[in-house]
Amino acid sequence: MRENIVLCGFMGCGKTTIARRLSRLTYRNFIDIDKYIQHQTKMSVSDIFRIYGEPVFRNMEHEVCGKFRHRASKIIATGGGTVTFERNVKALKAGGLIVLLDLPLEQLQERLAYDKKRPLLQVPNRNEVIEELYNSRIDIYRSVADVTVNAGQGIDYVALELMKKTGIL
Ligand code: S3P
Predict the structure, then answer these.
(1) CA-CA distance, 6 to 41, in Å (whole number)?
(2) Using a 6 Å cutoff on CB, does residue 80 contact ligand 1?
């Protein structure tokens, strides 16, 4: 089995979209950690946050990361907060390469302006919250990433660049 390709980055950077495209291009299995949790719990991420609170979600997220600590040729889309926890990075790095989908703050704010699903963004001062979270996370994303790809391009272009940079082309 070859190493997993683990996509990380801020909400709205395109992790799920790029992972799905990559999976199609490489015939590798695709796993989205949020969708995996939703499928297992039969609840939306928003409902998990609302009913049980964020720490419970983070524990679920960590449990899922643990399932991918081995090389299994998978394409894995994380959630925006996943790799900000060292325990998750440890598990995910054991099984593969971490790729940061990099996008400037202003573009993320634009992409997330009308989001209705992400529980952390359902606040009146959304742009400020995004900025604060982004500033608290960007250095972590950069330090855990084995490879960084500019996510501000077309889906196929990003996917191809990622394949070249990770050597899975
Ligand atoms: C989160 C990002 C979300 C989801 C949850 C928490 C975060 O995933 O895991 O709402 O902490 O940034 P996306 O990055 O796929 O939106």
Answers:
(1) 22
(2) yes
